[in-house]
Amino acid sequence: MKSNVPKFLKAYREVVVPYLIEKNGYKNIHEVPKIVKITLNCCVGSAGDIKDALEEAVKELALITGQKPVKTRAKKSISNFKLRKGQEIGCKVTLRGERMYEFLERFVWAALPRVRDFRGLPTRSFDAQGNYTIGIKDHTIFPEVDIENLKRNIGFDVTIVTTAKTKKEAIDLLFAMGFPFIGEKGKPLVLSA
């Protein structure tokens, strides 16, 4: 039995690839940038009851992504933060394949519209290699989260790793996939050929 292909993956193959080939003049289909993986990283190092906070963060991240997070440890001791080397302080999840595209669908179509006073995603959050990182302050924007049984609010970073070689290629890729970007002057970006 064949599984259902995520809508984002189908849109990438049928709409985004031809659009990017036409816009940027790629000679080969393998030159077209694509999303390789998405990493969600959460740190609860500053919480007073770090063990309880970490267990909640792992549970919530697993609920949001559908994949069990890996706990991360402190790389060095910092006495001002009461942090010791090797202490568990956060968790992370790396999504690839169909699960990555399913998360993207929920992130762009369900979670981002629920952000309070949302105007669009900034384009300054791209690095020079074409990867995009955005911080999520409130994880309750995801529909999977049960707000009534929530003890604390967790925040995390979402990093989208692409094969784009420049910032412009990465913006074109994610914008064509439906990411609501705002330009430098606060105006929404418009799709152009």
TrEMBL record:
<dbReference type="InterPro" id="IPR020929">
    <property type="entry name" value="Ribosomal_uL5_CS"/>
</dbReference>
<dbReference type="Pfam" id="PF00281">
    <property type="entry name" value="Ribosomal_L5"/>
</dbReference>
<feature type="domain" description="Large ribosomal subunit protein uL5 C-terminal">
    <location>
        <begin position="88"/>
        <end position="181"/>
    </location>
</feature>
<dbReference type="InterPro" id="IPR020930">
    <property type="entry name" value="Ribosomal_uL5_bac-type"/>
</dbReference>
<dbReference type="InterPro" id="IPR031309">
    <property type="entry name" value="Ribosomal_uL5_C"/>
</dbReference>
<feature type="domain" description="Large ribosomal subunit protein uL5 N-terminal">
    <location>
        <begin position="28"/>
        <end position="84"/>
    </location>
</feature>
<keyword id="KW-0694">RNA-binding</keyword>
<keyword id="KW-0820">tRNA-binding</keyword>
<keyword id="KW-0687">Ribonucleoprotein</keyword>
<dbReference type="InterPro" id="IPR022803">
    <property type="entry name" value="Ribosomal_uL5_dom_sf"/>
</dbReference>
<keyword id="KW-0699">rRNA-binding</keyword>
<comment type="similarity">
    <text>Belongs to the universal ribosomal protein uL5 family.</text>
</comment>
<dbReference type="Pfam" id="PF00673">
    <property type="entry name" value="Ribosomal_L5_C"/>
</dbReference>
<comment type="function">
    <text>This is 1 of the proteins that bind and probably mediate the attachment of the 5S RNA into the large ribosomal subunit, where it forms part of the central protuberance. In the 70S ribosome it contacts protein S13 of the 30S subunit (bridge B1b), connecting the 2 subunits; this bridge is implicated in subunit movement. Contacts the P site tRNA; the 5S rRNA and some of its associated proteins might help stabilize positioning of ribosome-bound tRNAs.</text>
</comment>
<dbReference type="GO" id="GO:0005840">
    <property type="term" value="C:ribosome"/>
</dbReference>
<dbReference type="InterPro" id="IPR002132">
    <property type="entry name" value="Ribosomal_uL5"/>
</dbReference>
<comment type="subunit">
    <text>Part of the 50S ribosomal subunit; part of the 5S rRNA/L5/L18/L25 subcomplex. Contacts the 5S rRNA and the P site tRNA. Forms a bridge to the 30S subunit in the 70S ribosome.</text>
</comment>
<protein>
    <recommendedName>
        <fullName>Large ribosomal subunit protein uL5</fullName>
    </recommendedName>
</protein>
<keyword id="KW-0689">Ribosomal protein</keyword>
<dbReference type="InterPro" id="IPR031310">
    <property type="entry name" value="Ribosomal_uL5_N"/>
</dbReference>
